[in-house]
Structure formats: C-alpha cells, structure tokens
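Entry type: protein chain
Record version: 2
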Amino acid sequence: MSAANRNVIWFEDLSRGDVGLVGGKNSSLGEMVQQLGQKGISVPPGFATTSDAFRAFIKANNLNQVIADAMDQLDAGKRTLAETGTAVRAAIVAGDWPEDIREAILSAYRELAERTGHDELSVAVRSSATAEDLPDASFAGQQETFLNVRGEAALLATCRRCYASLFTDRAITYRKLKGFDHNQVALSIGVQLMVRSDIGGSGVMFSIDTESGFDKVVLINAAWGLGENVVQGAVTPDEYEVYKPLLENPGLKPIVEKTCGAKEIKMIYAGAEGGETKNVPTSKAERGAYVLSDDEILELARQAATIEKHYGQPMDMEWAKDGETGKLYIVQARPETVQSRADVTALKSYTVHKTGKTLLTGLSVGSAVKAGRVCLIENVRDIDSFVDGSILVTSTTDPDWVPIMKRAAAIVTDHGGRTSHAAIVSRELGLPAIVGTGDATHILHDQQEVTISCAGGEEGAVYEGIAEYEVEDVHLDHVPDTKTRIMLNLADPSAAFRWWRLPADGVGLARMEFVVNSAVKVHPMALVNFDTLKDEDAKAEIAVLTRRYDNKSDYFVETLARGLSRIAAVAYPKPVIVRMSDFKTNEYAELLGGHAFEPKEENPMIGFRGASRYYSDAYREGFALECKAIRMLREDMGFDNVVVMIPFCRSPAEADKVLGVMAENGLKRGENGLQVYVMGEIPSNVIRAAEFATRFDGFSIGSNDLTQLTLGVDRDSGELADVFDESDPAVIWMIETLIARAHEAGAKVGLCGQAPSNNPAFAKLLVKAGIDTISVTPDSFVAVKQNVAEAEKG
C-alpha cells in the first residue's frame, strides 16, 4: 500500500519531503531516524498518523460543516473567538474513530511496546500540523503535546485532544493572519516512546543565538523534569552556549556560557490512571545545580551542529535526558524562523526632523534616536522602581546600575565624559546615551515625554516631547575595504554577540576588568584568602556566588574565562587583544571583599595599577588567577586567537618582571603562538619604544591616558574638559613617534582610544602616520571605516 493511503506510518519510513502527509514535526523526526541515526542522533522510536487519517476522521463525524459554520459566525461577529474555539474543540473531542483508523493506531501502539520491551507503554503524543514550519510561517507551539500517555483508551482519547488543539484560540488567530484556510490545514499525530526525563531533564536547543542571530553558537536551555515547562516559559532554565567551530576538536570544551537558572518547578508523572503529569517544587539542591554536565552540554551541541548541517539551515530543537539510562534524545527538530530570516546587511542611521524645544545637551554616545518616557532614579537603592523600556535619567552610574541599563531604551546622566561608565556600557549595549548634561535630574521629571538624539555628532540633545525622525539602513555590503585594519573595542560579554555581523578585523581591546566587574564581582585576593576574610557580609555573598566550587579560586578562573570567551568567539579566528585587569585601587576595593586588600591612594589614576600590581606580593596570587583564566580560554576552550596585553607598564625593567611572572603561570610569550602586547599610554612607552619593542609583539596606544599624561590633564575633570584634546600637537607627536620607533624595531602598533570614533580628522592623522590597526566602538565602525578609506586614497 502506498504511503499516501495509509493511516499510520513509522518514523523510519518518513523523510522531510513528507510534510504534506505528516506535518513538519513528524517528517523531521522521520528524516533524523532515517539519515542521522548513524551520525549519533538519537530519536525515540515511534509512528505518525497521516493527514489522510485526520481528514477521514473529520469527514466521518461531519465536522467540516461544523468548522465552516463556526468560522463564518466568528467572521460575522456572532461568536467570540473563545466561543468559537471551545465549540469546535468540543465537537472534535466528541467524535468517534473510524474503525480502520482506530485499529491502525492501536496496532502500531502494541508493536511499539513490543519493539521497546514494555508491557504497558508510556508515550508522548505530539501534534504536527501539515502546514507548520513553512519558511514564512511557523505554527510551533500552537498545537498541544501530551506526555506520559499510557494504555489504549487513554491514547485514543489523547489523539482526539490533539486533533482538537488545531483549533486553539491562538491557532485560529494565527491562521487568519497568515491567510490559511482552516479546512486546508490538517493535523498529524506523532506517538513516541516516552523518555524518562521526569527523573532526568529536558529543554530546548537552537543552533543559532536567538537574540543576536550569531550563527556560530548553539544555545541550550535546560530544566529538571519533563520539557513542557521550558517550552511554555513556566520555569527559568539553565542556559548554556557552545561555540560550534571548535566542537570538532574532542580535546576542547568551547562552552562560552553557563548560567544556572532558578528552575523553580519540575514536571513529573502524577502516577494517576491515564498518565497525567503534575508540577512540583524543585529542591534547593536542584535549583542550585546544573542540569547537564559539561560533557553532556558538548554532546548536545554536537548533535545540534550535525542536525543543522544536514538540514542546511539554523534549527530549533527539543531534547530530553532519560533519568534511568542517562541517554540524551532529540525529540523534535524544526527550522528556526526568526533570526535566520533577519536582514544581515544593514545597520541603522538616524535623522531628526521636527523637534520640541531643547531641554538639555551633553556628550552623545552612539548615533541612535529614542523617544519615550523618563524614569528618574537618583539612587541605586531605588532601581527596583525602574519601568522597562523607559529612558533612564540619573546622576551617574556604576556597575550596580547595569541590570537596569540593559532594560532601558536610552540613558541620560548629569555627570561623566566619553570614558565614563555610563558611556562605555551604553555603547556596549547599543543604547543611545547623553552624558555630562550637568543637571538632567533637576530639569527632567518622572514620566515626562522626551526624545533623546545622538544623531548630531559629538553633542547630544534632549528634546521636549516626541520628535519626528527617520531611520535609515546603512548597508554593510557597501563597507569599503581598507589596508588599515579596523577592529572593535568590546567589554561586555552579554552584548558582544550583538556586533558579529560587522566586518571587523578582530577585537583590538577587550577590557578584562569589565568582565570581572559584571560577571565575577569578587576581588581575586578575597577568593585566595577566603577562609581568613574578616568582612562577614562580603564572605556570605562570596559563599553564595561560589557555592558550586570546592576551590573558591576556580570560580574566578572559570567565570572570567567564559566571559572573555564570548568576546573571543565573535572574532575567531581573527585576533582578540585582551587587556589584563586595569582597575585602579579605589575600583578594586569596590569588588566583594576588596577593601581588605587595597591601599587608599590620593591619586589612583597614576598609582598602584597595571603592570606594577602583577609582580607585587600584594596582588601576585590574584594575577596568577588572571593568567590561569587566559590559559583556560586559549588551551582548554580553544580560543588561541587571544592576545594578552599589559597595561600601564612604566619601564622595560617592569616589563621583564611581568613577563617572568606570566611565564611562571604558564603564559610564555611565543609558546603555543602566544603574543603579548603592551599599552602605549605613558610617555616612557614612547621615549623607550625601541626597548619595549624587544619585549613585546606590539603596542596598543591608549589615547585617553596618553593625552592625560602628556598634557597633565585629568581626563575626568569637568573644569578642564576644553584642555583635554587628543589631537593636541604634543599628543600627535607622541603617537607618530611611537609608530615610527615601533615599526623600526619590527613591532606592530594599533590605537584603541575613543578619539577616532568621535573625530574623522583624527582617524586620518593615524592613517597618515602609518598605524597598523584602529580599534573603535561598534557604533562608529562603519563611519571610521569610510573615513579611513578616504584617508588611504589621499
């Protein structure tokens, strides 16, 4: 008998070409059983009912007219959506099975029990609409799945409920929006061996980052128990991300994110007749533990990569772990239909037209425009009152503010310059911000409607009311090629994937201290000396953060390495220059447990910072943990594109000490391809450039500090803002001289300061001086690229 005339078909007899017969879900399961079993993809065995069976059931119970009449009444406004759906579903559930279909389902169920060695088989019963998962429409999640169904009577009843779920309120609405005829969409039922994930775990997996569309990672969500809680969003799952290109090397563990979710509840078997399920609270131990081990995370990621390669497109999958055998199964796979279809060739450019009166001006961050309501918060203690999507107005920010900054539409501060916390974090998050307005918290008020414009160059404006503006796409396929390599400045791991589409030549500055501040949060010496910490409050907080680590120092190493790995992954295999921690003592002190290990300095900006710390007895053990994190990043995870950079190195003798300490900790320049750079931010780096060049592979000019120390101006001083000028002739002489002397000695030179992002003329000066690389903020990448191309033509 041909497949087209059959009521039931086994998965192994199906392929992805059978969507019209058994829907996208079941045809995909069949495809994997047929084609990918030998490649390590495990799919629970089972069978599918056909669309022919569905139509025969509908016809036998005279339901076509019932459905048509109900939809006509809905369209005419005589019935509500809820009334319509309820009526149609009730009619389907009350229907009788045609004898041939009933016998086909029960016969296959009995055979499945024999195949798997069960007396009373527990199965998952899944819906698969025959028009679902098309390129321009996805019905994923609209029809029902029923778990732990046992016994013949329960199976038949559940299959009717599956049919009925084709007419849930949201499914009806979706088909109307997409223009699908309700009578043209049929439903197939997948009946699969139930994986004992009720005593194991389960979740969802994508072969692409769902937020940014970054196509080099696998995203895995995991929770205890059956998978419906993750699919429905009823639980906060663990989240893991794995970098796909490095999965082929079995010696590497490229897990770039591991976040332990709350996993508040789990779905288990209820033990009732008919195979019901129920949700129960998870134990404290379950909430604090990861669902999957590292090896299991990697195994699932490899399965995702295999499935994606076979289908030739990003995939959305569901998985389950059997708690009895420990085996991992793929229980669903469908095409991902959101990020994979996003426009990959354009960024946004904003032009403001009609505005209200100008209320404030300040330094602009980014180039976007946002209109909305003000949420004024002056103290970090009050951040819980922040309204998502509002424009955050405050005096200043520090790392404690980052959680609500991520939820803001834009940011305005009283204080700060282009290198302030608010400015840097806003750039990383892709948010428009106006900093240093002077009195935003006095002039603006809560719930006031305003427009924030950073589209006018260096000066940003806050306008009264909702302005008129337009957004233009800047096409990345028109970005010019340049001899000078243009790289990115990145710091926030959580925002790094946002910029993966930029055709950058790598990352010229990844600030380790940002990762320590936002992800680690603990002073490394407080972890080394945890048992003797006297600050009991800090000790208690640290204990919570490190609860999954027997060795507290391992928490620092692993968290730092994973944070940096997200930045390294965006550029791999292009170089990513990671600057070792460059906190000042007052900033180190603010880390958990930090006050006990930091001196109080009158001028931390030129105090105990950078290289001087790394070989000091006061911080040597902390620096050893930084080195260990870099080794994990390069050697265990596989990101050998990472270059190490030493900040604030005052003399060649100090360089020798630091390089010696690095070598003691397994980071020897030249071994395993390791390159070591030095920041060019002190006049001595310029004056003694030839000597530094024999010790380092390259220089990265920090124009902010170099300007500060060349001109003798505090870069954060509002009173001296007019004097702080990175294009001052003295600063330009320093930059030109360093480039010339470094090149004479065979060393490379880049610049990672903010100046070329703000000033096209400055970028042209760098090109004329022969700079090798320029690192800029992502929002200014295209403009700098164009400026450099023009300069190179000249």
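Comment: The chain has 29 helices and 30 strands.
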